[in-house]
Amino acid sequence: xxxxxxxxxxxxxxxxxxxxxxxxxxxxxxxxxxxxxxxxxxxxxxxxxxxxxxxxxxxxxxxxxxxxxxxxxxxxxxxxxxxxxxxxxxxxxxxxxxxxxxxxxxxxxxxxxxxxxxxxxxxxxxxxxxxxxxxxxxxxxxxxxxxxxxxxxxxxxxxxxxxxxxxxxxxxxxxxxxxxxxxxxxxxxxxxxxxxxxxxxxxxxxxx
Length: 208
Hints:
alpha/beta; six-stranded mixed beta sheet; Rossmann fold
């Protein structure tokens, strides 16, 4: 049944470096108090809709793992089987990691930084583009996450803006031209129901 093919994607709550306007990437700051509230609220929204999970996946980074822990606590599902993998990590911002975004614009120019941040296939120096991020996140999705969903397991993925954008690009059939304008808010669950052929039957963004 399609209703059994549940996949929920969740970007972590606000991190300490989000708050400081720093490029984060593979650096490992934790959540801010606001980020903790966002993650807790995400769990409450999922619970209010009667959703629970059989399996969850997250990245190798603290902010995503902490978000997942807070959601599972709200759902009363602490101890649920959890798989952590760096394939789901945020994109690596390379030489930009740890830099203030405004300082980066002053150094390289508004247009160049915008291209590095929002383009599909242009990587910052020493880092990854969204295309590069997808090259590791999508095979992991196809090999580990999607088979679980299609077996009827209810799956929650707590990860990052760009690793999840790579998945959404495929699920929503976006293109390299349309994906740059698509943003994922922190702490907002995206609830997909998939068909047996792995395409999307329905999508619901839980903003409240």
